[in-house]
Amino acid sequence: MIVVFALAALVLSDAALAQRVPVRMATADVGSYGYAVSSILADVLNRELPSQYVVTVHPYSNTTAAMRATMNGEAEMSYTADVGMTELYARVGPHQGFRPRVGDLVHTLYVYPMETFLAVPADRAANFKSWADFSGKPVYFTPAGYMNWSNLQRIFNALGYQFNHVEIDSSLLADALRAGSIVGAGAYTTAGSSLPTFWKEAELRIDVRVVNPTPEEREKLAAAGLVPMRVDPKKAFTRDVGVDEIWGVPILFGYNMRADADPELVYQILTALEKAAPRLPALDPGFGPLAENFVGLQVAGISANPHIPVHAGLARFLQERGAWNDSWKIAR
């Protein structure tokens, strides 16, 4: 009798598992920041979502591959960034000629920003009073093809400035700045804190100054949906960089889904993460902005690409919180 009950329980368990709805999160490679963040979010969602859902993380070689996998039906959510969504809908860069087997990603969830800005050698800082002073000059806008490189391209396009990128080995950034082969370089922080490794190394070898956009440039960027954010220079640099605050234009990284994803599931994901957001910075400081203003981060992600449709589940979420803009389009 005990054996019969045990077998019955096993059958029921297997049946229950078979009925669970998979939510596969496609992300970048295992060593990436995106993968680490995905693992944290998956753990939170598996605790907070109804038991019929099971969230798993699936790494791909890069973000573009993860996006394509999701659009081809191999996953439900994809790690991406607002600038990557811009390229997807324009069918440029890595998405040129791409035709998804199922459907394009739409605005669904944004979780943390990277803030892009510009810096120059300290001994030449007097020549740079605005971002207009970089127009047409040789600048290393971070490695070509990086999301921050793409971000600086769209920044310069929005401002009407000439983007003159000079590609160098990023480990030689300090040498290139000192030699004058570039007048300055793009830099970025994650959630207002750490610099990338190549900038951490460069600032130990050369004294630099951050050049902020002027109030007029910030206003023009905001009008284009690229709203600059304040960054505390003391959290990013180990030495004085000549400003009390850094104004960086954020890239918003997130997890977007196709329009055919269940709106109720999307709504539940957003609601669960909004509830958990205050606890997330303890797991990773990159979640700080999400904890500070969960709704505002979603609005900023849409505003960066207002022509891209918004998932119906996110639209409902924002409408209930009085943050919906009627000019946005709900994905069908």
User: CATH superfamily membership of the largest domain, which one?
Assistant: Periplasmic binding protein-like II
Mean pLDDT: 91
Q: Which blocks of ≥5 consecutive residues have pLDDT under 50?
A: 1-15
The Cα radius of gyration reads: 22 Å
Q: What features would you describe in this structure?
A:
Strands 1, 2, 3, 4, 5, 6, 7, 8, 9 and 10 form a 10-stranded mixed beta sheet that branches. The model is unreliable at 1-15 (pLDDT under 50). Strand 1, helix 2 and strand 2 (53-59) form a beta-alpha-beta unit. The chain has helices spanning 2-18, 33-48, 63-71, 82-90, 147-159, 173-179, 197-203, 215-223, 233-236, 263-276, 288-292, 294-304, 312-320; strands spanning 21-27, 53-59, 77-81, 105-106, 110-121, 139-140, 184-190, 208-211, 229-231, 246-258. The chain is built from 13 helices and 10 strands. It is of the alpha/beta class and 332 residues long. It has 2 domains: 20-111 and 253-320, Periplasmic binding protein-like II (D-Maltodextrin-Binding Protein, domain 2); 113-250, D-Maltodextrin-Binding Protein, domain 2 (3-Layer(aba) Sandwich), CATH 3.40.190. The chain is globular and about 65 Å long.
